[in-house]
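If you are new to this repository, start here. Below is one unmodified record pulled from the training split, so you can see the exact layout before writing a loader.
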Amino acid sequence: MPFFSVIIPTFNRANILPRAIESILSQSFSDWELIIQDDGSTDETSTIVQSFLDDRRIKYFSEENQGVCAARNLGSEKAIAKYITFLDSDDYVSDTWLMDFYNEIQQSKADIVRCKTTVNSVPENEDQDLLAGNFAVKRNLFLEAGKYDSKLKFGENTELKWRLEERNGIFSYIPKYNFFYDNDLTSSSDKKKENQIEFTYYVLKKHQNLFRKNKRWTQLVYQIAGVNCVQLGRKKEGRNLIWKGYFSNPKHLKSLFRAIKYSL
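And here is the target side for that same chain:
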């Protein structure tokens, strides 16, 4: 049984997928399996992947299109390793990615181990966020926590982190930039804003107890969603959300200034 199952979901990225696969083949730690979960690609993905299947550690599955979260979940169900990790098909990792995860797990006995992230060639200073590619997690814990929420189109890693924390998952951290994330700058910013607004309404309902305990989080998600609404021309809805954010934590004066600014 391998120590790590690496899961790559992919959809119509035959041109870039080989880079992700090759970054796994280049790992200094060799005790892994790679599950490529094709989310219904209509391009040359299947043909491209065939050239890698001589390595018995690599497995390829294809299902009808259901979205990236569903594809990750399907991969996790097929995985056999104790720890799983995810890598989107347009991203890649350093050759010590798995070795550093392994060493930290052996030392800390952590359930979830994170590394630092480089976004579009720029090192990120934020060390708290989960992204598919910057963490490894015990497979059993991931499954018990409910896997990825396939209803989400935005913030799915953040929402997963909340549920892992609720199950008292032990986190550890590697201060190395082992994950290289390509943020798609060509995708619609308006669509991203719509997805963030939808995320806000959804998680505030799903995680009522969590937000009840953390007023600052409540304030932030309301106000970010509100600003996005205003920028999309949904001004009345946006102002309502921004003021809701302020009243959820009225001691925070910066949020009051923001509410006043967008009410003018």
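Two things worth knowing about this chain: The two ends are 62 Å apart (CA to CA). The chain has a mean pLDDT of 95.
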